[in-house]
Amino acid sequence: MPGTSSTMSDTIKVGDFLVIKRQKYTKLQKFTSLDTTVHLGKDQIELRALENQPYHSTFQLVPKEGRNRRLYSLDPVTEIRNLKELLIKESGVDNRNIVDDRSTQNLSAEEIQKLREECESSSEIVGKLVENSKSFASKTEYSQEKYLKRKEKKYFEYVQIKRPSIRLIADIYWRLDVDKVMGVRFDTLSQIISYSGVCSVGNFLLYESGTNGLLPAAFLNSVGAGSAGRVVHLHPGNVAQKQALQAMDFPQEQLERCISVNIYSVLRHFHQSKQKESEKGVENGKEAVIAGGGDEENHKRKIESSEDDGPEAKQPKLEEVAKKPPQQWELDNAAACELMGEKFDALVIVAKEHPQNIIKALLPFVKPSRPVVVFSTTREILTECYMELKAAANVTYLRITSNWMRQYQILPNRTHPDVTMSANSGYLLTGYTIR
């Protein structure tokens, strides 16, 4: 299966990235050491108990003794109490006579705060609130469930620890800050992967200018472990953003098949190498012409000059001796240039800047009949690129599309779409290269 490896541990280890889930809220956190703590709202949670526990386990928040009542440790649990079964014993026919105000609750705010300090679990707190509610038993069963969910959300005491996945990371980044992923929602990300045809076979060229490593992580996940697929990840900065790549915990051999290089540096390296090869070819041609003349006198002069040079001529130059070993970015540039010479099976561009010049620079490195995908949050920008490619006639079947995704709540007798949602997640320009 792409993105998985037999070396991955099924248990939580120090150094792992974790997804901590509390009801609908999720957070990406690195388990740096046994002393690591995480903040969920106002609550501070110690993660020490997670070591060697299985992924997808559920833990109960246990208050720590001391002055800080918001500090919790974790205790593994096998099941979560069902408040509906515990607390709903009788229900009313309708809510017409119920007045929803503070007078229906016998407990004051001070007494409720004292409950939070004294009770060991959220179910105890909610149970006390239900006991002291004048209107709870008169509400319909549906209203009672909504009340319990609202109170449970406020006092919920359980967290679940999940292994990071592309879907979870994309959702976390999107919820925290849309700009962290350049407006690429998960459904749009899936469309980019689908249109580009990224798989375990082939070489793929990606340019992105800041998605916290989400795009290269998604590409490498689709390429999979132990495959022949390779990704060249171009970026505009000095160092590539790789948080999502690190969070996915890919095997080393899989990570090595994603080469991250600065776009300007690698293009300069590639074109300079081509120019040197061309100049060397010209020099070799001149030498071949001279050698083909069969001039004995020239040949004699060459022998004499080599004898005059003596042993000093055979000694290496000081510059060559003092030459430093190549740095990692130079090795990455060389590896990327080698793949650029072979050409790629797809080109994907997700750019903050106008992608027109980037398309021009990278399109020559794509094989014929291969997909080209360009993402932008602005339709007008992609329209300009569409007209340019149409005029150049080097990409066919050009299309501009946008995604519109809506989630639905599916429950018995109350299925409905989400009321609040993000209407748009950018636009895609897609096509296929031609000779």
TrEMBL record:
Residue stretches of biased makeup (Basic and acidic residues): 296-323
Keywords: Nucleus, tRNA processing
InterPro entries tied to this protein: SAM-dependent_MTases_sf, TRM6
Gene Ontology, cellular component aspect: nucleus
Start and end residues of each stretch annotated as Disordered: 289-324
Domain of life: Eukaryota
Listed GO biological process terms: tRNA processing
Subcellular location: Nucleus
Family (UniProt): Belongs to the TRM6/GCD10 family.
PANTHER family for the chain: TRANSLATION INITIATION FACTOR EIF3-RELATED, TRNA (ADENINE(58)-N(1))-METHYLTRANSFERASE NON-CATALYTIC SUBUNIT TRM6
Name of the molecule in the record: tRNA (adenine(58)-N(1))-methyltransferase non-catalytic subunit TRM6
Organism expressing this protein natively: Culex pipiens pipiens
